[in-house]
């Protein structure tokens, strides 16, 4: 029995939802998002709440139940509040700057890295060593943050690189003489 799937998704103020077949469309102050569920679950709109129930007792139906409820909850959160990932840059001479649609990263390579920001995501740099990725789609925001981090993942000896804010990097001791 899904513990997550049992709870209905309460829509925040200013958010409206419409249901057509297996597709849920959610509109809010930040935009519009939609999600199409599989045929293993039934979606119902009850006033200001969306409920998801499985259409059987198969393992797949039970798995889709919790996942679908979470996807619908993420739609509601995305169009009302949005999602945000913060990255920190550590290392001498490592810095970031945004110019229009391009994030310019100086990461110790012989060249500057130009990262093109995809549509639907905003990237800002409050400081030279901080990057903030924001958007209404949680999956896209996380993927963009991961792609930026890939350019110079933190290494375990000096801790240099791009890391998520608050991420702990396990440090190793260097070789001894």
From TrEMBL:
What keywords does the record list, in alphabetical order? Ribonucleoprotein, Ribosomal protein, RNA-binding, rRNA-binding
Q: Which residues form the Large ribosomal subunit protein uL6 alpha-beta domain?
A: 12-82, 91-164
Q: Which domain of life is it from?
A: Bacteria
State the PROSITE patterns in the record. RIBOSOMAL_L6_1 (PS00525)
Does the UniProt entry include the keyword rRNA-binding? yes
Keyword hit for Ribonucleoprotein? yes
Query: What InterPro entries does its record include?
Result: Ribosomal_uL6-like, Ribosomal_uL6-like_a/b-dom_sf, Ribosomal_uL6_a/b-dom, Ribosomal_uL6_bac-type, Ribosomal_uL6_CS
Q: Which GO terms describe its cellular component?
A: ribosome
What family does the entry list?
Belongs to the universal ribosomal protein uL6 family.
The entry's function note states:
This protein binds to the 23S rRNA, and is important in its secondary structure. It is located near the subunit interface in the base of the L7/L12 stalk, and near the tRNA binding site of the peptidyltransferase center.
Q: How does it assemble?
A: Part of the 50S ribosomal subunit.
What name is this protein filed under?
Large ribosomal subunit protein uL6
Provenance organism: Plastorhodobacter daqingensis
């Amino acid at each position: 029995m899904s513990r997550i799937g049992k709870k209905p998704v309460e829509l925040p103020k200013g958010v409206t939802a419409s249901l057509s077949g297996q597709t849920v469309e959610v509109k809010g102050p930040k935009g519009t998002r939609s999600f199409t569920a599989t045929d293993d679950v039934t979606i119902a709109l009850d006033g200001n709440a969306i409920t998801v129930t499985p259409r059987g007792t198969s393992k797949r139906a039970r798995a889709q139940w919790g996942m679908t409820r979470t996807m619908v909850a993420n739609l509601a959160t995305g169009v009302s509040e949005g999602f945000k990932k913060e990255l920190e840059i550590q290392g001498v001479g490592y810095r970031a700057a945004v110019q229009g649609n391009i994030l310019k990263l100086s990461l110790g390579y012989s060249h500057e890295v130009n990262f093109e920001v995809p549509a639907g995501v905003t990237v800002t740099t409050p400081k030279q060593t901080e990057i903030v990725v924001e958007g209404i789609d949680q999956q896209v925001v996380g993927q963009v943050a991961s792609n930026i981090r890939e350019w110079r993942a933190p290494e375990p000896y000096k801790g240099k690189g791009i890391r998520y804010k608050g991420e702990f990097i396990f440090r190793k001791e260097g070789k001894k003489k």
